[in-house]
Amino acid sequence: MTHWEDFYNTHLPPADFEDNRSLLKEFCERHNKLQNRIVLVTSGGTTVPLEHNTVRFVDNFSAGTRGSASAEYFLDHDYAVIFMYRHKSLEPFTRHFTGQQFFDMLDIADNSQSSTIAIKPDSVDVFAPVLAKYKIARETQMILYVNFTSVVDYMWLLRAACECLAAFEERAVLYLAAAVSDFYIPEDMMPTHKMQSGDGAPTISLQLVPKMLAPLASLWVPHAYVVSFKLETDENLLIVKARDSLNKYKHKLVIANVLQTRKHRVVFVTPTDSYELHLSREQAHQGLEIEEPIVADVVQKHGDFIVSAQQRQ
Ligand code: 9Z3
User: Fold this and answer.
1) CA 178 to ligand 1 center in whole angstroms
2) Which residue from 42, 66, 91 has its CB within 8 A of the most atoms of ligand 1, so it is best to mutate?
3) Angstrom distance (rounded) from CA 95 to CA 98
4) Rounded Cα gap, residues 51 and 193, in angstroms
5) What ipTM is given for this predicted complex?
6) Is the pTM of this model over 0.90?
7) Mutation test of ligand 1: which of 62, 88, 89, 235 has the most ligand atoms closer than 8 Å to its C-beta?
8) Residue range 29-47: average pLDDT?
9) CATH number belonging to domain 4-93+140-312
10) How do strand 207-208 and strand 265-269 relate by DSSP bridges?
C-alpha cells in the first residue's frame, strides 16, 4: 500500500484546491473565534478515474442521504458545519425536493404583460420550513459547502479541512460518512487518453488507497472527536470490522451499517460498548429519519467528551 505521505507527493491537488482551502480557513477562523462547536460532515462516494482525460471511472456507492440529512441535524444542535460532499450528490435542504418534485410544487400564471411563479398553496407547508432553515443557515454563515469528485480530490480536501479544524481541539467533530474508495489507479499507472476498445479488453490493476484515518486521528486532529462509518454487505463482518477499525486508529466511535438496512438500522461501536439504533416501521412511516437520533447521540457523546477533557486540564 502507498504510504499516505507518498500519496500526497505523487498526486497533484485538484484545480480548485486553493480556493477551497481559503474558504475553509476563513470559515474555521471565524467560528473558532466565536468558540463554536464545529463538525466536518463528509458525504457521497468518491470516483477512481481510469484515464487522465477521464471518460471512465469506478464509483463508490452512496447517494449522500446520510451526510446531507446529518448536516441539517447538526445545524439544529448549533454546530457550524463544513459539508464536504461529492459534486452532484444530495445536499442539505435541497435534498427534500429532488428531480421533478420542486417543479411540481410551482404554479405559473401568465398574463399578456408578465408571468408570476408561486408555490402551490398545498406545498407551502412542506416547503416553507425547509426554506426558512436554509435561509437561516446561510445568513448566519453556519454552513460551508465544499465538494470533491475523485478520491484524490477527497484526500486533499480532507487534509486541508483537518489543518483548519486542529485549532478547535476537542470542540471539533469529524463525521466521516462519505463512501471512500479502497482501491485506485495511481496517476503514474494511468493512461493519458481514453482507452480504445480496438486495443482489446483492458486488464485493470487497482492498488490499495492508504488509510487516511491513521494520520487523521493520530496527527492531524489528535484532540478532535472522530467518528467513522463502516459499511458492509455481510452482517457477520459488521461488528468485527468496526472493532478492528477502532483498535487500529484509536478514534472515538464507529457507526456500522449494512447496505440494505442502512436507512433504519445502525450499530454504534465505541471502545467499551456496542449498541443498536433503529427506526420502527411506524417511525419511518411518520417520516422520521434515522440521522436525527444518530446525530443526537453523537452530540451527546461529544458533549461528554468535552467535559471530561476539561476535567483533565
Ligand atoms: C457509510 O457507511 C454511510 O452510512 C453510507 C450512507 C455510505 C452507507 P447514503 O449516502 O449511504 O445515505 O446512500 N459510509 C462509510 C462508507 C465507507 O467508505 N467506509 C469505509 C469502510 O467501510 C471507510 S471508514 O471501510
Assistant:
1) 5
2) 66
3) 6
4) 6
5) 0.95
6) yes
7) 62
8) 98
9) 3.40.50.10300
10) unpaired
Residue whose CA is closest, atom 18 of ligand 1? 179
The answer for residues whose C-beta is within 8 angstroms of residue 64's C-beta and 6 or more apart is 43, 44, 85, 86, 89, 90, 91, 95
**Separation CA 150–CA 172 (nearest Å):** 25
pLDDT of residue 113: 83
- Name the grid cell of 19: 480556493
**What whole-number distance in Å separates Cα of residue 67 and Cα of residue 85?**
8
Q: How far apart are CA 275 and CA 270, in angstroms?
A: 9
Q: How crowded is residue 178: how many other Cβ atoms within 10 Å of its Cβ?
A: 25
Distance 118 CA to ligand 1 centre (A): 38
Residue 191, C-alpha cell as written in the block: 493512461
Pairing mode of beta strands 57-59, 47-49: antiparallel
Q: Say which residue the cell 491537488 belongs to.
A: 13
Give the CA distances from residue 260 to residues 59, 179, 233, 291, 302, in Å, rounded to whole numbers and listed in that order: 18, 15, 7, 16, 28
